[in-house]
Design brief:
Length: 270
């Protein structure tokens, strides 16, 4: 829903304008009690450095009551099987960091998607903008296909070290999910009979439990990552799997991961 014309850097404003309309319709109560898009995350190119300011202001103007921040996909991997979204080392780029400082000064947040070898770079970046709330998407972007086939133990070890390094940064929270993407190396998307909730919970648990251990439930939030994860399981199977794998946590810890962390980070009035 980006704008079809106008300045390239302002085209993402169209997406927020569109979602703001949907949110307003939902808030009217016409479609029931649910409030869709109670908080909105858009996009702006942080490489614009200080010139990102008017873009952020346009996004805020498009949704004065719901716009909370932006998402920037910085994924880069040496294996050409993966689609790189940015150049190598982008989070250390002075322009990117200047743009992030502007984002922080406006009280906005940054959702970030990356590939797991970039986790140490994220930790360094997070320390450079300590007042910027950063939300790490998809528990750090594990890859177990392509050049990583047969190197699963090395991948997990590197990922664990990266997650531990990022978790030390108090301004970073993490989205717990995204394991349905084929890049994780599971066979779930290839099955003739879809995976059930119990097996899915067992498959996700070692990964998610480690992240929860490092970040704490108060800095983690379950995510759907739909529609990408839809290739591997349905929404209800995923939701039930989260419930099953989190049974060992206290009621308050589960409330954090299912609700409270998200409402706090995205400033959702409930």
């Amino acid at each position: 829903m980006y704008r079809a014309d106008g300045a390239e850097e302002l085209r993402p404003v169209g997406e927020v304008e569109f979602v703001q309309g949907l949110a307003a319709a939902s808030a009217s109560g016409v479609y029931g009690p649910a409030r869709a898009a109670a908080a909105i995350v858009g996009h702006a190119d942080l490489k614009l450095a200080d010139k990102v300011a008017p873009i952020l202001e346009a996004l805020q103007a498009a949704s004065p009551n719901r716009f909370r921040g932006i998402r920037h996909n910085v994924s880069w991997n040496a294996d050409p099987i993966f689609q790189n979204r940015e150049v190598e080392g982008i989070m250390a780029d002075s322009r990117f960091r200047e743009g992030a400082a502007v984002l922080s000064s406006k009280g906005l947040s940054l959702d970030i998607m990356l590939s797991f070898p970039q986790l140490p770079e994220l930790a360094d970046f997070a320390r450079s903008v300590p007042d910027l709330p950063i939300i790490l998407n998809h528990v750090g972007g594990v890859n177990r296909i392509g050049m990583y086939v047969g190197k699963e133990s090395e991948v997990e070890s590197e990922w664990r070290k990266g997650i531990a390094a990022v978790a030390v940064c108090p301004n970073v929270t993490v989205k717990l999910g995204g394991l349905g993407m084929p890049r994780w190396g599971f066979d779930w998307h290839k099955r003739e009979k879809p995976i059930g909730s119990k097996e899915l919970a067992e498959g996700m648990a070692p990964w998610l439990n480690y992240v929860i251990e490092q970040f704490g439930p108060e800095r983690g939030m379950f995510e759907s990552n739909f529609p990408p994860d839809k290739v591997s399981f349905s929404y209800n199977i995923m939701t039930n799997a989260f419930k099953l794998m989190s049974q060992g946590y206290s009621d308050s810890e589960r409330a954090d991961m299912f609700h409270d962390t998200a409402t706090r980070v995205y400033r959702i009035d409930v």
